[in-house]
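Cross-check.
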Amino acid sequence: MQRKGLLGQLIQNLCCLPGVGNKSAQRMAFHLLQRDRNGGLRLAESLLEAIEKIGYCQHCRILTEQTVCDICQDDGRDQSQICIVENSSDVWVIDQASVFKGRYFVLHGRLSPLDGIGPDELGMDKLEPLLKSGAVKELILATNSTVEGEATAFFISQLAKKYQVPASRIAHGVPMGGELEFIDSSTLMHAFNGRREV
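Predicted model, tokenized:
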């Protein structure tokens, strides 16, 4: 039964978040209203301010409240390396691991003709001039290892080849601490294909 009124509307709106079903939304709504109204107010203010002020960096397309993000402004980063990712959240993950010290380019998706997502929707009009400029010496493709992610990586690698920019793909395979008997065959195939000398 669909509840009406403000409470029902709050629960229904919380369901827009990924992984939040009706029961989780109910728990969140009741917690905020019964136990943490101040937290709810801070959340509402923060969400409203973020929606009003956060846009995309004009260079790398990461989510930021600035015209040019901190990463693109950082002179300490290698300007000749660009890591291609599908989403801004991927930048956070890679940067927290402190394994990459270059710049990023966020696609905001991946090629998916069935969903109407082609090269134009992924910002190729901004990426191509970067490749053409000669400033990029290496392109690192860090798209997800899905069919669409692989197709996107292949498409971009061909674009990079057109401008003689070397493109590499991050390795996919057995996770640290993983046991072979629990690894699926597709992951194992990637691990064997991406092996390197020790």
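The beta strands are 55-56, 63-64, 78-85, 102-106, 138-141, 167-169. The first strand starts at residue 55 and ends at 56. Passed to J.P. for a second look.
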